[in-house]
Each structure stands twice: as structure tokens, then as C-alpha cells.
Design goal:
CATH class of the largest domain: Mainly Alpha
Helix content: 55-70%
CATH topology of the largest domain: Globin-like
Order of helices and strands: HHHHHHHEEHEHEHEH
Shape: rod-shaped
Largest sheet: 5 strands, mixed
Distance between the termini: 99 Å
Strand content: 5-15%
Number of domains: 2
Radius of gyration: 32 Å
Amino acid sequence: MAKLSTIAELMKEKQVEILDAWLEVIDRESGISSGMQRTDQLMSKEALRVEVKSLADALTLAFSAEDYDNLDAPQFEPSIILLREISVSRARQGFTPSQTAMFAMSLKSAILQFMQQAFQGDPIRLNNETVKMNVIIDRLAMVTFEAYALTREEVIMEQSRSLLDLSTPVIKLWDGVVILPLVGIIDTPRSQQIIAALLKGIVDNQAQVAVLDVTGVPMMDTRVAQHLINTVDAARMLGAEVVLTGISADSAQTLVRLNVDLSSLRTSGLLKNGIKDALHIMGMEIAPKGIAS
């Protein structure tokens, strides 16, 4: 075998051995942190080996260039694109940030033993090649982490939007009557989402009356009251009447103390009374139990 002089030559000559060592490091490192799912629990070994080989092939080509110590060089673009794709996929699969960064970082220890063997007669070259490899892989690890972080932010925003949709369900109660039970804190972004959901529910169900129940809203103050007034005003612009229910005694006292005027709103303390009021607006009555309607 000819004497090896570069990392690229080493990765070509010892590809199978390096891949096996790389997979072994990933497997070992993934089980170090307690409570963390192992990599092989999140993806198959076959899929992992495909990723490892794809990245190894891309890096081998990149290291073959003269300026292989410059990550900004064009030959590293395929490796960077591949790592970003892998990071995005892992962020959505449930991998931790450390597992994602380790995918690239673990190549260091996997290939180092082979570099020591290949360059054992030339310590200066060993040192130079090791330094260059460390710089490139460290920067590649940063690429993976940045892609992972951006994707996790997108996932969190998607989940937040889903939770908002679930927390503002407009339910058809009767022909012409819908109900929107609110739970949680109402801030400005949430109020905008509430208005949009209520208006859509009114249009979709051709509702004439909407029951807005705030039993699950923990805090009522001037700001929340103004959000509710805005919601009612928006519904009225579509020709729908709104019945506000669920204001507790404590909330009522707070609103009075703050001089909040809700006289323009149709209110009812209990949800069942609010529903009766809504049906009354529609010209319907709930017959007392035991009495035929």
C-alpha cells in the first residue's frame, strides 16, 4: 500500500473501517446522557449508515481540494447542504441538540486513530492534518446546530399556533347559535386570534348569536375587558349578537373597581343562563323539565 499523505487519501483507503468506527462512536455517545433516547431508538441503523456514508463521501471530495481547510470553499457546499438537511430532519424527529451536533463531531475521534497510524512517521504532518480536520469539523458542527435551532423554532411556532387553534374552538350549539369557550390568559396576539376564530365561526355557521364564555380565563382586568369589547364589536359588524358568560364574582368586583364599563355588552353569570339567553334571542325557549314544549 502506498504511503498516505492526506486526509482525503486516508478516507478513500480506509472508508469502510472509518465508517464502522464512526457509527460505533455515535452509538456509544448517544447512550451517555441518562434519560436521553438513543440514536437507534429514533432512527434505524440502516438509515444512520446511509447518512454517515453520504457525509463521508461528500467530505472526502471536499478534502481532496487544495484549500480543504477553508469551509467557505465551493467544494464544501454539498457537505453543508447535506448536514443542514440532516439537522432539519433530526430536529423534527425528536433528536436533542447534542445528538445532532455530535453527528459531525464524532467523526473526529473516529478518524483520529487512523490518522495516527497513517502519519505515525511524520508527526508534523499528523499535527497539521489534525488541526485542519478539527477546524473544519468544529465549523460543520456549528452548521448542524444552527440548522437544528432554526428548525426547532419553527416547530415551536407551529405547535403554538396549533395550541391557539385548540384553545379557541368555535362550536355550533344550534342552528344560528355558536359558542366560543375561552381558556387561559388573553393578551393582544391571543385576542386577535380569538376575533379571527369567532368571525370565521359566525360566517361558516351563518350564526346570529355567539356565546362567549370566559369561565376559564384566570384574570379579568381593563386590558382583557377591552379585548372582549373589541371582539363583541367585530361580531356585531357581521350582524351577530354576543352573549358574554362566565364572569366570576371576583372578576366583576375587579372590573367595577377599575371603572370598566361593560354596560354595552349582554352578560350572564352562568353558561347555562347565557345559552338560554342566546336561544331566547333566536326566538326559542327551553321548556322546564317535565313540561312539553
